[in-house]
Amino acid sequence: MAQLTHTALNNESVKGVPEDVRVPGPRPEKAGILHIGAGAFHRAHQAVYTDDTDWGIICAAPRSREVIDALAAQDGLFTVATLGPDGAELRVIGSIVDTLHLATETERALELIASDDIHIVTLTVTEKAYRDPEGVPGLLAEGLARRARRGGPPLTILCCDNLPDNGKTTRAAVEPLLDGPTRAWAAEHVTFPSTMVDRIVPASTRATYDRAIETLGLVDAAAVEAEPFLQWVIEDDFAGPRPDWNATFTTDVAGWEKLKLRTLNGVHSSLAYLGALAGAETISETLALPGARSFAERLVAEQIAPSLTPPNGQDVVAYGRSVLERFANPGIRHRCLQIAMDGSQKLPQRLLGTIADLAEAGRALDLIALPLAAWIRFCGGKADDGTELPLDDPLAPVLRQSLAAAGDRASARVDAILGIRQVVPEPVASDHRLRRAATAWLGELDRHGVARTLEKL
């Protein structure tokens, strides 16, 4: 099929796609949203929500221009394949009406942030980007300064990354960079609502692009795929107009955010490290290991559920079961190594916060120490069968050097990682119960490997 056509998806060719593929209606002529972060998650989540409104998006890529160049060549059109157990359903999305490359078009980006036409700036730039004042926070600060000097209209800055209190986190990254007059203006004209976003979106593969060709008869170099589940919870604190998104608007996102970060993201990361060590390529393959699903269910019921108060009407254990059903979807090939990236940035929210709350309440830490031990062993760079494992993490040199200096003893390696204050805060770092439990699990993983350790559970 791939050799039958080289015609690209665009405004003209989309008119000929099969009738069972949903295509955009009339597209907006200009954008009210500037989105920073052109990754697959944005295209399969916020862009889909926006496609059901009359708003448009300018999609900005901070570094690599591969995706935005593909989108530009396709008039902003791309497909989302929703993958269920029974197959795939494709939809063409048309909410992205323009593209931007931040690294080479910084001036244009600043002018857009200052523009009267832009009412919302949305962000999916991963956890580590908020710690770099020279990057996105600095860009937002300079753009706000221009908007303030011109007396521009109010602006909403909407973080869609998996961070606790992500609106407050974004504000905290931007506000210290503002000068006095801009900060005074922003206090009255700029809001930073918190959000919770949820959809499993694997990295696109050759199969993703081939599926688009086979279904549409067209080449889509920006195609993405995702699970059927889709959720967006947003704090209803907009400074100006907003799209009529089919999202959950609330005055308190914190409960939803904690439920998702700890139950979905925390279990996802736990399974990713265990699976990578065991040689499993995907999360669904990890869950198929003997004992793996039982471990995940116990982790939710015995450790995660007691650590949080869920939103009204939500049950943590039931939510955890639904999460595991989503993880087991054979249509979603979410790679363990993809989820395992940036552990030093993700685990403080996904795992260590849960540990801190359990410890403060005097609860046992025995089971939740296993994913911590798995991450420590993963950072060592060797799978159970001796295969080399990549450590794609901004603190990779620190993690590897700390482990190398610790030697082979499990207790020394646990102490080395718990001693990295950029990752592990007090009082978690000095909790003797956690240290003992993590050391015992790391010893088990060293001697028997993941598969045998889970099976024994």
State the main characteristics.
single chain; 457 residues; alpha/beta; Rossmann fold; N-(1-d-carboxylethyl)-l-norvaline Dehydrogenase, domain 2; 2 domains; six-stranded parallel beta sheet; three-stranded mixed beta sheet; 18 helices; 12% strand; disordered N terminus
What's the quick description here?
The protein has 457 residues and is of the alpha/beta class. 45% of the residues lie in helices and 12% in strands.
Give an overview in words.
With 457 residues, the protein is an alpha/beta fold. It folds into 2 domains: 13-250, NAD(P)-binding Rossmann-like Domain (Rossmann fold, 3-Layer(aba) Sandwich); 254-456, N-(1-d-carboxylethyl)-l-norvaline Dehydrogenase, domain 2. It contains 18 helices and 12 strands. The protein has helices at residues 40-44, 46-51, 66-73, 106-114, 136-149, 166-174, 180-189, 206-216, 254-278, 283-287, 292-304, 316-327, 336-340, 343-360, 369-379, 396-406, 410-418, 432-456, and strands spanning 33-36, 57-61, 78-84, 87-93, 96-101, 120-123, 155-159, 190-191, 195-198, 224-226, 231-235, 248-250. Strands 5-2-1-6-7-8 form a 6-stranded parallel sheet, with helices on both faces. α9 (254-278) packs across α12, α9 (254-278) packs across α15 (369-379) and α15 (369-379) crosses α18.
